[in-house]
């Protein structure tokens, strides 16, 4: 359901007792956002698994969550329940697929739809050597016809949305035109949503980590393509660390020449993972929903029944709590929380008492600071 979101021209922020609120300036911009795309947590290998997504959903009921990238071969031939299964409490989840064979992509997308995923996303942005050797990821930006064939096949196979996550280019070409040509060739398939990491990818010479930091960010490319193709959704990704920064870029307020360009959403990755409390503010800032009045301790207590059930099923406690290490980042007792979980959650027979003990230590530390 489309929603309207008020984006403020931000001067500063005020931290309340339990939530962050932006003070409104005299001028604020109202813009149309599709509720499904206003804010997303990026797909991250080894991080955004089912336990991470359940935790993130406790913090935001509206944010769009993504699976880790799965190859078509894994989806078609692997243990589907293990790879694709997720808890209904995770809400809307996007399955990200990697591949370059149209028939296999269509088959994997259909399987994802049958498992209950809300959308299918094609990975055309990962620059790792392993991904390139499998002929998927960012290297496919040089072959838009293949991407278009895959997207068209998936759209024909499923009834849920199919989107593309890409870069602004690859290797030595810094110009806007190849990026625009890539988008044009994909959009004719009927794909109307692109999540754009606003950096190019170096396919030779940079590691995946370096590819997240070294190539310069060019947000203006995403703003320009949105201006040229206003009916296509463009979700901004790459280098986003705070809500203030993301909302300013979405509203075009950082670039006077692009002030009339309103992007359709923001995707945060490592910033949201390392400081998950950022997600507590998402429903209010991007979807106009009242912020839930709760504390970090409330979120921990909300997680406890889920943690206990999974540990009873044989899941190692550490597989769940590793995603929660940053919950008290910057708070009194935050280091104690992180250390206690890191040292104890992976021990044999570790149970929820490890989590409750860590929370007790945080409470004691906070009380000492307040005294």
What does this structure look like?
The chain is of the alpha/beta class and 371 residues long. The protein has two domains: 3-287, TIM Barrel, CATH 3.20.20.70; 296-370, Four Helix Bundle (Hemerythrin (Met), subunit A) (Up-down Bundle), CATH 1.20.120. It is built from 16 helices and 13 strands. The strands form three sheets. Strands 5, 6, 7, 8, 9, 10, 11, 12 and 13 form a nine-stranded parallel sheet that branches. Strand 12 (233-237), helix 10 (243-250) and strand 13 (265-268) form a beta-alpha-beta unit. The relative contact order is 0.12.
- Roughly what percent helix? 40-55%
Mean pLDDT: 87
Fraction in beta strands: 15-25%
> CATH topology of the largest domain, which one?
TIM Barrel
How big is the Rg?
21 Å
* CATH architectural label of the largest domain: Alpha-Beta Barrel
Question: What's the CATH first level of the largest domain?
Answer: Alpha Beta
Biggest sheet layout: 9 strands, parallel
Reading the helices and strands in chain order gives EEEEEHEEHHEHEHHEHEHHEHEHHHHHH
**DSSP E strands, number:** 13
- Name the shape in a single word: globular
Structural class: alpha/beta
- Name the CATH homologous superfamily of the largest domain: Aldolase class I
User: How many domains?
Assistant: 2
Distance between the termini: 47 Å
Low-confidence stretches: 1-34
Task: Please tag this protein with its features.
9-stranded parallel sheet, alpha/beta, about 40% helix, about 375 residues, globular, single chain, Four Helix Bundle (Hemerythrin (Met), subunit A), TIM Barrel, two-stranded antiparallel sheet
